[in-house]
Design a protein that fits this description.
The protein is 42% helix and 8% strand. With 443 residues, the protein is mainly alpha-helical. The chain has a domain of 108 residues: Cytochrome c-like domain (Cytochrome Bc1 Complex, Chain D, domain 2, Orthogonal Bundle), CATH 1.10.760. It has a two-stranded parallel ribbon. The protein has a two-stranded antiparallel sheet with strand order 2-3. The longest helix has 27 residues.
Amino acid sequence: MSTSQRALWTRVVLGGIALGACATLAWSLDPEAGAATVSGAARTTIDRQVDADAQASLRRGRLIFRSATFGSEHFFGDVLRLHEAVAHVPPRTALAVGLKVDADAVPPRVLASANLDDPATTLALLRLNAVIGVRGVFDPAQSANGGLKSLGITCAFCHSTVDDSVAPGIGHRLDGWPNRDLNVGAIIGLSPNLQVVADRLETDLPTVRTVLASWGPGRFDASLFMDGKGLRPDGKTAAVLIPPAYGLAGVNLHTYTGWGSVPYWNAFVANLEMNGLGTFYDPRLADAAKFPLAAAHHLDDKRDAVDLVTDKLADLHFYQLALRAPVPPPGSFDPAAAARGRVLFAGKAACATCHVPPLYTDPGQNLHTAEEIGIDDFQAQRSPTGAYRTTPLKGAWSRAKGGYYHDGRFATLRDVVDHYDGFLHLGLTPEEKADLVEFLKSL
């Protein structure tokens, strides 16, 4: 073999080895290959362990989201004595204030024959853990209130609803969906002991009842026990719409005004809103000028002797990040118009400047001042950030009830588009606005 032939043969062999190595690497990195990698048993073992850990965390997180009360029975039951009122409320009344029934937790035969006008049915549903977000504590030796001696609430109380597949308010769970029917103010208002709320707010009972009654369906005021501002300067409620708990993977800050990340807000709510037993630290709440009630009650550094919150935050976070925004049902939007709207969204309408696909919020720091979005700063100034978060848009169709923006000031998506068209001087035609709305409905 000549020198030139030997060199050519060497190049062919080395090239074949290189191509084989590349193919091996591509196979080992191909997500479709799954566990059938060729990179060694140790890597496969790690992959399997990660998968097992992820599934276990998902199961624990789902259970926590649906069932963990974080010890809130101490407040809602032992202090507010809310169970004393609930025990005498028939299911029809409970459904009217937005409580939901998980049909999968009730035997079909029992569900079909249930008397919705009998308070005993409410107690039966609580025993089955079928009232979404509410957990009853029963004492078989107690005769008062049908044996119901206390109750607590879970994350699902505000952030789950049902598909109404059996009847309005009764059906399969929809975790992560905001319950825009839930009248939290009316439910708390049933408490036989609202004086404790008045004491915390440093006001009187009539004022407490006025504030709670002002909330209405689908609203809650998480800042009330921080700053005591029950009403806006214009006399309207200071409560905001209950936000979704879905579609948060990849999103930096949670809540309308970006108080913190998802696990931050879980800790905040479990400790300071649900009044669970745990540990919470945020030195920003020691600012007596901005948060007078939080500072007075030392909510900036809460440390209970028993902590029923902290060990649940990781799994709860994992489950919530797995809750994808719901896909719009077939026939709910015009595909051709939505396609035209997509072009407008990224172009003339400039929506994608902040609502960056596919997250449809700002990657990174997703906060903007009130001046940037053309609204007042009342709610923003109640938060540590002084700003508003760019709301992720996926699933917007599923939370139309109550309106859009933090306080529902825009009744429809068209109203939102009209606002930005005027504020940013976009010059959109009526047809372009209609197309843009169809695109938003398609997300």
